[in-house]
Write a structure and sequence with these properties.
By secondary structure, the chain is of the alpha/beta class. It has helices at residues 18-35, 54-65, 81-90, 94-99, 115-124, 154-161; strands at 38-39, 46-51, 70-76, 103-109, 131-136, 148-149.
Length: 184
Protein backbone atom coordinates (compact mmCIF):
# COMPACT_ATOMS: atom_id res chain seq x y z
CA UNK A 1 0.00 0.00 0.00
CA UNK A 2 1.40 3.39 -0.96
CA UNK A 3 1.58 6.07 1.74
CA UNK A 4 -0.24 9.34 1.00
CA UNK A 5 1.93 12.46 0.85
CA UNK A 6 2.06 14.40 4.12
CA UNK A 7 2.12 18.11 4.77
CA UNK A 8 5.23 19.47 6.56
CA UNK A 9 4.94 18.75 10.28
CA UNK A 10 2.32 16.01 9.79
CA UNK A 11 3.19 12.66 11.39
CA UNK A 12 3.01 9.39 9.47
CA UNK A 13 -0.25 7.64 10.37
CA UNK A 14 1.50 4.64 11.93
CA UNK A 15 3.82 6.75 14.05
CA UNK A 16 1.42 8.14 16.58
CA UNK A 17 -2.35 7.80 16.62
CA UNK A 18 -4.60 10.56 17.88
CA UNK A 19 -5.97 8.21 20.52
CA UNK A 20 -2.44 7.46 21.77
CA UNK A 21 -1.56 11.13 22.03
CA UNK A 22 -4.85 12.32 23.54
CA UNK A 23 -5.34 9.27 25.74
CA UNK A 24 -1.83 9.48 27.12
CA UNK A 25 -1.95 13.22 27.71
CA UNK A 26 -3.87 12.98 30.98
CA UNK A 27 -1.60 10.30 32.40
CA UNK A 28 1.49 12.12 31.16
CA UNK A 29 0.41 15.42 32.70
CA UNK A 30 -0.29 13.70 36.00
CA UNK A 31 3.16 12.15 36.24
CA UNK A 32 5.07 15.00 34.58
CA UNK A 33 5.46 17.00 37.76
CA UNK A 34 6.35 13.95 39.83
CA UNK A 35 9.03 12.88 37.37
CA UNK A 36 10.49 16.37 37.20
CA UNK A 37 9.59 16.48 33.51
CA UNK A 38 7.90 19.89 33.60
CA UNK A 39 9.42 22.09 36.24
CA UNK A 40 10.01 25.77 36.71
CA UNK A 41 13.63 26.71 36.12
CA UNK A 42 15.46 29.73 37.39
CA UNK A 43 13.73 32.64 35.63
CA UNK A 44 12.53 30.38 32.80
CA UNK A 45 8.77 30.15 33.04
CA UNK A 46 8.53 26.41 32.24
CA UNK A 47 11.28 23.96 31.26
CA UNK A 48 10.22 20.66 29.71
CA UNK A 49 12.43 17.80 28.62
CA UNK A 50 14.19 15.81 27.54
CA UNK A 51 11.71 15.07 24.74
CA UNK A 52 12.62 11.97 22.75
CA UNK A 53 9.45 11.03 20.80
CA UNK A 54 6.80 12.78 18.72
CA UNK A 55 4.11 11.85 21.27
CA UNK A 56 6.17 13.40 24.09
CA UNK A 57 6.62 16.56 21.99
CA UNK A 58 2.87 16.94 21.44
CA UNK A 59 2.32 16.49 25.18
CA UNK A 60 5.10 18.96 26.02
CA UNK A 61 3.50 21.63 23.84
CA UNK A 62 0.17 21.08 25.63
CA UNK A 63 1.85 21.39 29.03
CA UNK A 64 3.77 24.50 27.98
CA UNK A 65 0.52 26.03 26.73
CA UNK A 66 -0.97 25.95 30.22
CA UNK A 67 1.39 28.70 31.36
CA UNK A 68 2.95 30.21 28.24
CA UNK A 69 1.78 31.60 24.92
CA UNK A 70 5.07 30.67 23.27
CA UNK A 71 7.90 28.19 23.72
CA UNK A 72 11.51 28.03 22.60
CA UNK A 73 12.20 24.60 21.10
CA UNK A 74 15.84 23.49 21.42
CA UNK A 75 16.78 20.40 19.38
CA UNK A 76 20.06 18.95 20.67
CA UNK A 77 22.12 15.77 21.06
CA UNK A 78 24.89 14.69 23.42
CA UNK A 79 27.28 14.21 20.48
CA UNK A 80 26.65 17.77 19.17
CA UNK A 81 29.54 20.02 20.25
CA UNK A 82 27.71 23.31 19.71
CA UNK A 83 24.70 21.95 21.63
CA UNK A 84 26.94 21.79 24.72
CA UNK A 85 27.93 25.44 24.17
CA UNK A 86 24.23 26.34 23.93
CA UNK A 87 23.48 24.54 27.22
CA UNK A 88 26.58 25.70 29.12
CA UNK A 89 27.11 29.24 27.81
CA UNK A 90 24.25 30.64 25.71
CA UNK A 91 21.08 29.60 27.59
CA UNK A 92 22.50 30.51 31.04
CA UNK A 93 23.58 33.96 29.82
CA UNK A 94 21.69 36.59 31.88
CA UNK A 95 20.45 38.34 28.70
CA UNK A 96 18.88 35.09 27.48
CA UNK A 97 17.45 34.17 30.89
CA UNK A 98 15.80 37.61 31.07
CA UNK A 99 14.06 37.03 27.73
CA UNK A 100 12.94 33.49 28.64
CA UNK A 101 10.84 34.57 31.64
CA UNK A 102 7.61 34.43 29.61
CA UNK A 103 8.50 31.53 27.32
CA UNK A 104 8.58 27.82 27.98
CA UNK A 105 11.75 25.96 27.02
CA UNK A 106 11.18 22.59 25.33
CA UNK A 107 14.40 20.54 25.22
CA UNK A 108 14.32 17.94 22.43
CA UNK A 109 17.00 15.21 22.63
CA UNK A 110 17.80 13.28 19.43
CA UNK A 111 21.03 11.70 20.75
CA UNK A 112 20.17 8.13 19.66
CA UNK A 113 19.15 9.17 16.09
CA UNK A 114 16.88 6.11 16.04
CA UNK A 115 13.44 5.80 14.44
CA UNK A 116 11.83 7.88 17.22
CA UNK A 117 14.41 10.63 16.64
CA UNK A 118 13.85 10.61 12.88
CA UNK A 119 10.04 10.81 13.25
CA UNK A 120 10.45 13.65 15.76
CA UNK A 121 12.85 15.55 13.48
CA UNK A 122 10.42 15.11 10.57
CA UNK A 123 7.56 16.45 12.70
CA UNK A 124 9.67 19.48 13.61
CA UNK A 125 10.90 20.02 10.05
CA UNK A 126 14.52 19.72 11.17
CA UNK A 127 17.45 17.80 9.74
CA UNK A 128 19.25 17.54 13.08
CA UNK A 129 20.85 19.46 15.91
CA UNK A 130 21.47 22.17 16.71
CA UNK A 131 18.14 23.66 15.67
CA UNK A 132 16.16 26.22 17.67
CA UNK A 133 12.86 27.99 17.00
CA UNK A 134 9.86 29.54 18.75
CA UNK A 135 6.35 28.08 18.58
CA UNK A 136 2.92 29.34 19.54
CA UNK A 137 1.82 26.83 22.18
CA UNK A 138 -1.91 27.15 21.44
CA UNK A 139 -1.47 25.89 17.86
CA UNK A 140 2.01 24.34 17.95
CA UNK A 141 2.84 26.45 14.91
CA UNK A 142 6.41 27.67 14.41
CA UNK A 143 6.63 31.44 14.32
CA UNK A 144 8.20 32.93 11.21
CA UNK A 145 11.75 34.21 11.41
CA UNK A 146 12.63 32.45 14.69
CA UNK A 147 14.49 29.37 13.43
CA UNK A 148 18.24 28.94 13.66
CA UNK A 149 20.24 26.05 12.21
CA UNK A 150 23.75 25.50 13.44
CA UNK A 151 25.92 28.16 15.05
CA UNK A 152 24.54 31.41 16.52
CA UNK A 153 25.59 33.73 19.32
CA UNK A 154 23.87 35.28 22.34
CA UNK A 155 23.03 38.50 20.48
CA UNK A 156 21.35 36.55 17.67
CA UNK A 157 19.17 34.60 20.12
CA UNK A 158 18.34 37.73 22.11
CA UNK A 159 17.14 39.38 18.89
CA UNK A 160 14.87 36.41 18.13
CA UNK A 161 13.52 36.23 21.72
CA UNK A 162 12.98 39.97 22.28
CA UNK A 163 9.56 40.24 20.53
CA UNK A 164 8.22 37.42 22.71
CA UNK A 165 9.59 38.50 26.09
CA UNK A 166 6.94 41.10 26.85
CA UNK A 167 4.90 40.99 30.05
CA UNK A 168 2.58 38.00 30.43
CA UNK A 169 -0.40 40.17 29.55
CA UNK A 170 1.21 41.14 26.26
CA UNK A 171 2.94 37.82 25.56
CA UNK A 172 2.00 35.92 22.45
CA UNK A 173 2.49 37.23 18.97
CA UNK A 174 4.95 40.09 18.76
CA UNK A 175 3.50 43.50 18.17
CA UNK A 176 3.25 44.52 14.53
CA UNK A 177 5.42 47.48 13.61
CA UNK A 178 3.40 50.67 13.41
CA UNK A 179 2.76 51.89 9.90
CA UNK A 180 4.71 54.95 8.84
CA UNK A 181 2.68 57.91 7.59
CA UNK A 182 2.69 58.18 3.82
CA UNK A 183 4.28 61.18 2.19
CA UNK A 184 1.82 63.17 0.14
Amino acid sequence: MMEEPRKPGQLPAASCSRRTVLGGLGAFAGIAGLAGFARPAQAISTKIGPIRTAAQYVQAVAIAGRHNSNALVDIAADWCGFCRIIDEEILPDPRIVEHLTNLALIKVDVTPMDDDSRVLLELLGAKGPPTMFIIETKTGRELSGTRSLGWFDVENLVARLRPFSQSKAGAGRPEKPKARPRKS
